[in-house]
Amino acid sequence: MAAPDSITSYGAPLTTHDLLALGQRFGIDYRFPEAPNRAQPAPCVARGRVMDVEINPSLRVTHSDLDVLHAYASTSRRSAAWFLSVILEGRIQVGLGHQSFQLQAGDAFSAHFNEQTGLEVFQPAPQRLRILNISILASTGPLSSLPINVAPPAAPMLHIWKVPQLLHHSLETALASNWPAERQRLLWQGLALQLLAHGLPAACLSPNDEEQAVSFPSGLSHRDQQCLERLRQQLEEYPNQAYRLEQLASNAAMSPSSLRSKFQRCYGCSIFDYLRHCRLAQAQAYLRKGYSVQQTAHACGYRHATNFATAFKRAFGIAPHEVHNRH
C-alpha cells in the first residue's frame, strides 16, 4: 500500500510554467499554440483541480477537472506499459504514430508507448474537461499477480473503447466521495482494475484470459446472455421510461423470477438497481447542463423531486442542487 502522502492535489490556476513543471516530473512535453510571447508573465492555461493517487510504485490514478482557457498539446516522452484515459466531460484529440482520434465524453483509450513513439494529446479550448487516467509504469511487481495479463505488446498500440454506463456511474460516485485517504486508495485500486478489465485490448490477453473474457456466467446460455444484454442496453438508453418486471420478462421470453435471478447472475445487481444507476448517471449529466432539480427528476423518470433528491444524495454523497449550483 502506498504511503499516506501518496494522494496529491494541485489547485488552480495552472499556468504554462505549472504545466511545464508537471511535465518535467512525469516526462511530458507541453506545448501552448495560443500562448503569448514568452517574455511576458506566464499565462493561465486552465483553472481547476488535479488529483494524483499513487496506488503503488507501478500503478497511478490521476483525475483532472479543468476549465481549459487556452488550447494546449502534450507528448509523452517516457515509456508506459499501459496508459488508460477516460473522458468524463469535454473532448480531446489523441494520436499515436499514424493513428489519430477525436474523443468525447463516454469515450476511453488504452495505449502502450515508448520513448521513440510518444502519445500525442491535444486539448482544445474553451471547454470544461474532466479526465481520469490510469498509468501502469511497469509490468512486474504487485501487478504481476493479477488475473488478467497486463504485459504490454511488443510495439506501441492505441485502442479506443467505450466506458460501460455502470462503470461510468461508479467512477462519478467515487469522485464525489469524501473518504479518508486510505479508503480512497482502496476504492481507486478496485476501480483501476475494473478499467483494466474493460480497456485492455482482447488481442493482448493471454489465451486463458481470452477464454474467460467470452465465457458466460454459470447457468446462462448464449441465448440468455443475448436477451439480457438487449434488455440492459434498453435500460441504459431509455432509463426515463416506466418499467414493470412482468413486461420486461415477457420481452425477454422469461418468467419474472427467471429474469430476476439471471440478470443478477449476469451483471451482479438487480434489474431495478441497474435502472436506478442509469437514471442517476443521466441525472448527473442533466444537472451539469443546467437543468433544474425538478426538471432533472422528471426527465429521468422520477415522479417526485424529493424521491429523486434522496436517491441522488445516497448515490453520490451530495445533494443534486449542489451539482446544479456548481455549473
UniProtKB/TrEMBL annotation:
Q: InterPro entries annotated for this entry?
A: Homeodomain-like_sf, HTH_AraC, HTH_AraC-typ_CS, PchR_regulatory_protein
Statement: the UniProt record of this protein carries the keyword Chloroplast: no
* SUPFAM superfamilies to which the protein is assigned, alphabetical: Homeodomain-like (SSF46689)
Could you name the domain of life of the organism this protein comes from?
A: Bacteria
Q: Which residues form the HTH araC/xylS-type domain?
A: 229-326
Q: Does the keyword DNA-binding apply?
A: yes
Recorded protein name is Helix-turn-helix domain-containing protein
Any idea which UniProt keywords this protein has? Answer: DNA-binding, Transcription, Transcription regulation
Q: Which GO terms describe its molecular function?
A: DNA-binding transcription factor activity; sequence-specific DNA binding
